[in-house]
Amino acid sequence: MFNMCTYRTYDLFFPYNMSMERRILHLDLDAFFCAVEENYDPDLRGKPFAVGGQPGERGVVASCSYAARQFGVRSAMPMMRAVRLVPNLIIVPSRHHVYREVSREVMKRLHELTESVEQISIDEAFLDISDLNDPPERIARGLQTRIRDELGLPSSIGIASNKLVAKIATEVGKKAAKGGAPPFALTIVPAGDEAAFLAPLPADILWGVGPKTGTRLAELGIHTIGDIARWPEADLIRRFGENGRDLANHAKGRDDRPIVTEHETKSISQENTFVRDIRDDKSLERELHEQAEQVAAQLRKNQLAGTTVKLKLRWPDFTTLTRQMTLPQPTDSAEEIAKAALALMRKVRKPGQAVRLLGIGISGLGPPLRQLSLWEDGGEKSRKLQEVLDALREKYGDKAIQRGKSLG
Predict the structure, then answer these.
(1) Are residues 311 and 176 in the same domain?
(2) Reported pTM
């Protein structure tokens, strides 16, 4: 199904002390959304296609096939530009509820290998495999093969002594692969070789080197990670502050961050950039209710409630503003969230005023408060009904079941 021979290993000879050295595995699913769509429609295989919005609707490329990448199509590119590059580009609408379900299946298999798993996105994770007895290459190939055979998904892996180098190893392996097939890459950096592996790579592949920092480094004649490693650390700190210290350490391949198996959720939000600017008040109210439903469902899924509701608006001239309201007590109710967001919107938007983007969020998160009543059980019945609705939306998509207010 996939080209299993297109992979690159940095070094296939592993002088690992199995009992002492830390080994971090970084896994990245290759063109994940596209791979899922190819499983649903095998006729897409080998063809240039992109997952995302339509070109006339401000759509962007969420993911693109490797055949499309041969023509210069990339993720986050405006779909209109992608179609100019590939006039016969096939555009497939996103189905995020399907991608989330497939992602859960992948992560379940990672947790069966080790409980030390840090998921960093829908298609990416770190694993600490230090305590596993098998050689790193065998672990990686076994994991890639299982995900491919059981789920039909290609993946690339990097292994190193820390998260920084493992992730960069994955990127190097993927970029080294040629052709229109998923890379199925495996790149392993033995302990002690981190700095040598990083040295020839461009500086902007290093964490902490964004466009501004990259420009300043280039002005100093610093173009590779090795250039950073050779630059006096004290001067980097003088020029870049604490980021300079991080640059010096990262350039030498140093990174002592642990695998974080749980993340504290600080806020939950939803937003939508409209295909065309919206002026209709009722349409905006429906959108607010839909977003409130999605935010509330995520709160309940994480067994959380929030106290501060935030509204985000963007006008057609790209002016963006945010407003927030603190509630008297935590809530996970879509109705309460929508009511607060609607009140905020009415304070800052005139009736009929055009809106380009609308979003709501909630913060101040903590465990939900449950109040028991001696005389009525309506609250409990409502909660059980909401749990059923959440389960149906999780399985069939956010729009599978909607309240009357959302339908308008």
Answers:
(1) no
(2) 0.70
